[in-house]
């Protein structure tokens, strides 16, 4: 014969205590509470919106392709007129002229200062007056 362990006895005691607590529970000790509905049922408007949405989805899913008529598409891509094309070619020539510019062709120039800074003497005169 095997003797039950201490853990088994403790578990059995807790189980018995729990069952006794449930059997001898007095419902009069409970406080009265008002229940609040946290997930209310949808109203008529929401149900109607869902029906409309569902009917649209069903209409797309079960669409009868045999009722469609053949249509030819016309491409309405307006091409530019010759004047616009010539203008763009001129801009491309200008860009290529800038990219292929040779700075060796430039002439040497002397810089002439038109607005010289005042001399030290002029600054001293202004400070003293």
From TrEMBL:
One of its GO terms (cellular component) is cytoskeleton. Signal peptide: none annotated. Keywords: Cytoplasm, Cytoskeleton. SMART domains: THY. The keyword Cytoplasm applies. Pfam families: Thymosin. Belongs to the thymosin beta family. GO terms for molecular function: actin monomer binding. One of its GO terms (biological process) is actin filament organization. Residues 107-129 are annotated as: Disordered. Its main location: cytoplasm. This is Thymosin beta-4 family. InterPro entries: Beta-thymosin (IPR001152), Beta-thymosin_sf (IPR038386).
